[in-house]
Structures are given as structure tokens and as C-alpha cells.
């Protein structure tokens, strides 16, 4: 998807923005517990970590583990 492509091409901030938008849409359309929503949360946390937002990424991963 576009968000992953941006991240892989070094556009980390844009990738994060894309994943944030996608997450909002998926929560609304699919619900917070849908596997695709959870995968998007995982991807968002991963790109936050790669962007140097380590504390936030760790918190998001920890929350995701309890929600899965």
C-alpha cells in the first residue's frame, strides 16, 4: 500500500501520516478488533520506531499485544 511504499522509500513522516489515516478509517469501517485494523496498528508502531519515536512505538506495541 501507499503508506508502506512511502516508508520503504525513506518518507517516514508521510508513511506515518498515511497509516494514521488508514487506522482511523479501518477503526470506523471494520472496528477496533478486526485483524486488518490490528495489522495497521502494528505497521504504524513499526514506522514510528523507524522514525525514532521509540517510546511511542514501544507503548503502541505493548498496547497492541494486550488487544490481540
From TrEMBL:
SUPFAM superfamilies: TPR-like
InterPro entries: TPR-like_helical_dom_sf (IPR011990)
Pfam families: TPR_12
Cited Gene3D superfamilies: Tetratricopeptide repeat domain
Protein name: Kinesin light chain 2
Amino acid at each position: 500500500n501507499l503508506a508502506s511504499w512511502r516508508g520503504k522509500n525513506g518518507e517516514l513522516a508521510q508513511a506515518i501520516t498515511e497509516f494514521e489515516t488508514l487506522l482511523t478509517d479501518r477503526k470506523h469501517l471494520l472496528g477496533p478488533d478486526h485483524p486488518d485494523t490490528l495489522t495497521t496498528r502494528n505497521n504504524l508502531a513499526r514506522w514510528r520506531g523507524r522514525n525514532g519515536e521509540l517510546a511511542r512505538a514501544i507503548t503502541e506495541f505493548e498496547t497492541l499485544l494486550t488487544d490481540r
